[in-house]
TrEMBL record:
GO terms for biological process: maturation of 5.8S rRNA from tricistronic rRNA transcript (SSU-rRNA, 5.8S rRNA, LSU-rRNA); maturation of LSU-rRNA from tricistronic rRNA transcript (SSU-rRNA, 5.8S rRNA, LSU-rRNA). This is URB1 C-terminal domain-containing protein. GO terms for cellular component: nucleolus. It holds the Pfam family NopRA1. Residues 198-346 form the URB1 C-terminal domain.
Length: 351
């Protein structure tokens, strides 16, 4: 058998295998098998540069296939969810299969009714979910845990118990937030902040991946533009958030700059703090921010004033806020170096 014939037979076998795997996924009541998902992902990855394979895949992928993937997706860091995310990204980027008809993208069993209506009525007649309805899919506590301990925060592998179901896949959530802020969509700005969407975007500016930082900066830029639009909803803290975003913008020295975790987390925590003026830490932190139009992103903001608080009533809470920021931000060696600029370890030993 000639090598050309052998190659042709192998391609046909592979083509049949991928068709079988796609057919299995289309079975409505079938839970997705991680082995099948990985096989499809690998096939898409290996075939993306072959024009004939690209065209063949485009003919096989139906709307129902993508809907079933999304309904089985939990947006977490599990192997299954990461495989689904990779498949969707490959289909959109390498196979030019538009995912826009599914925007705003929701996930899980709860999304099944929405996508069934899309399939039955078509894109023109289907009523898309509002941004507020999509924000209801997010668990604020889970978003906060994700910005603190997502695998995107560092390239250092820390051996610990399986946490794949404790954190969202930050790659997906960041892209979701970016799409919600696209095209001047109507949105409850305070709700976006309350589910920790803005905090995640701030924290993601310290992520190891340049592409994820790029999306994070996009979310921050779009949210600032959203707040400054004339028809944007008004809420009491609106001016403070515009000011916070302007300070952040003025402090960035390079495009898509990777910030130290302590600085990115400081902005994330201040974002939450602004919603709670009754918090004893509110006044000293806001006073610091109002002093100047930018901050030094290579230093720990407001470290001495909070650690060595002169408040007789709230010094414990101010110190605790600062120590919690430092504890959650010590992720990489550079974070320790940033803290040492302010002799933090020496201050700790004096407590």
């Amino acid at each position: 058998m000639t090598s050309r014939k052998r190659k042709k037979m192998e391609e046909n076998m592979c083509d049949n295998d991928i068709q079988t795997d796609i057919s299995k996924i289309l079975l409505e009541d079938c839970d997705l098998d991680i082995t099948i998902l990985l096989r499809i992902r690998n096939h898409l990855q290996n075939s993306k540069d072959k024009e004939s394979e690209v065209q063949a895949v485009k003919l096989k992928i139906e709307q129902r296939f993508i809907i079933h993937l999304l309904c089985q997706y939990d947006a977490m860091e599990s192997e299954k969810d990461k495989a689904i995310f990779d498949i969707l990204c490959l289909l959109e980027r390498s196979y030019q299969i538009s995912l826009r008809p599914f925007f705003p993208m929701v996930w899980g069993k709860r999304a099944k009714d929405n996508y069934e209506k899309l399939r039955q009525l078509g894109e023109l007649l289907h009523t898309k979910l509002t941004t507020d309805q999509v924000l209801d899919y997010l668990n604020p506590k889970l978003v906060w845990s994700t910005l603190l301990k997502s695998e995107q925060t560092t390239s250092i592998k820390i051996p610990e118990k399986d946490s794949s179901n404790q954190f969202y896949d930050a790659r997906f959530i960041l892209r979701l937030l970016a799409t919600l802020l696209d095209n001047h969509a109507k949105m409850n700005s305070r709700k976006f902040i309350a589910v920790n969407g803005l905090s995640l975007a701030f924290a993601a500016t310290s992520f190891i991946s340049r592409s994820e930082r790029c999306v994070a900066y996009l979310v921050l830029r779009r949210f600032l533009l959203h707040l400054t639009e004339l028809d944007t909803d008004s809420f009491p803290e609106k001016c403070l958030y515009i000011y916070l975003l302007q300070i952040f913008k003025n402090s960035i020295e390079n495009p898509i700059q990777r910030l130290p975790h302590v600085v990115a987390h400081f902005f994330a925590r201040v974002t939450k703090l602004i919603l709670h003026p009754e918090d004893p830490v509110y006044q000293p932190v806001l006073s610091f921010l109002l002093l100047k139009p930018n901050i030094d992103v290579q230093n720990v903001p407001e470290i001495y004033k909070l650690l060595l608080s002169s408040s007789t009533e709230h010094y414990n809470k101010e110190r605790h806020w600062c120590l919690r920021l430092i504890l959650d931000s010590l992720i990489e060696p550079n974070d320790y170096n940033i803290l040492q600029k302010r002799f933090v370890s020496n201050n700790f030993s004096s407590f």
